[in-house]
TrEMBL record:
PANTHER family referenced in this protein's UniProt entry, alphabetically: ISOCHORISMATE SYNTHASE ENTC (PTHR42839:SF2)
Protein's organism: Fructilactobacillus lindneri DSM 20690 = JCM 11027
Listed name of the protein: isochorismate synthase
Span of domain Chorismate-utilising enzyme C-terminal: 126-368
EC number: 5.4.4.2
Record's signal peptide: none
Amino acid sequence: MNIKNLAKKFNYYQNAVYFSSANHQHRYFGFGKSDEIISNDVEEINNWQIKQTVPVFGGIPFDKQHLDSNLMNGYFIAPQYVIDEKTGQSWGKIPQVDSQIQTNHLNKIISSINDVNWIARTTSPLQEMLNDQKKKKVVLGMQKTINLDYPLNLDKLIISLNKHQPNSYHLIIKNNDEVFVSATPERLIRLNKSTIETAAVAGTTNRDLNPKIDQQLANDLKHDIKNLHEHELVVQEITNKIANLAKLDYPDEPKILKTPQVQHLYTPITGVLKQQTNLLQLVAALHPTPALGGIPLDWALSQIKNTELNPRGLFAAPIGYVLPNGDGEFVIGIRSLWEKQRTVKLFAGAGILAGSNLTQEAREIKLKMSVMEDLIKEQLHE
Ligand SMILES: C=C(O[C@@H]1C=C(C(=O)O)C=C[C@H]1O)C(=O)O
């Protein structure tokens, strides 16, 4: 079955999932529900996963604040049927369709509400960092709300993701009238037997249509003291957090990771486990990295809670899948949206350091948010 036919099935099932790896080696589709768990407790999710005979998909929320949602407070599903469109491997049996749930409407934006006063709210954590060198970094986000005339067409969205975000991970989890979507460049952890792969993605600049200017922007980023420092903090934290669990290997200097909207400093980190550790334990050990939290972590989390207007839920949180043999992959749920009925919320954030220019960071956030906004715009006309 090809991607177009599999994407169409999103119209026929109340529960459906899609995960595509950034290197295009795996593209999983899952339909129906054989089991599910609503939880933010890693151990509970782990005990549940061990009993499943199909790959499971879901996310562990960034924070424990309450949201009226059957997805955003932590959710995993074991579909009735899963197929990896790239390898042809499948699990379970394709279920009866629920009904034709959706038709191809031309959509319309009814209203759109931006996050307000972000710079004013963010000035206080910035000032705290200027006053106290121990407070090094905090990642602060914005949320935007868009009200639509019809629910998002997920069939079309999957095709758009593949067309416009070819180098990112894609994840869609649909649970009845709720959907979480991410096109993220950031891997948290992949486990393959005893080999792990993680990465530091932090430090950002623009893209340019002119290849020479684009290259110059990348070179400038590689030499920019603020961004290098921000990146180094993330490399140090990630490697410290799992040094006792795995023997790690990573380059001395960051590379550049380009998405269509932005370019990042990027350090791939590989490792071999020293002792048997399952994927969800690795997720719990790593999350939240300072790419989405900050340093020191407790201070950063309190700043996030006080500064951001809404809880994050699965925004900026570990999302991914676990295969029945325990292998799998989690990515960070950024460049993302959450739809409930016809209300869509978008999230994007930026790392703030004592030397940050908040106007520039706000601009960077808008650029990151445009990943999902552009996908929504594609639904507004055929
Ligand atoms: C928070 C986001 O991105 C994170 C922040 C980055 C930065 O500040 O340079 C870069 C990549 C991500 O780790 C987002 O996209 O919403």
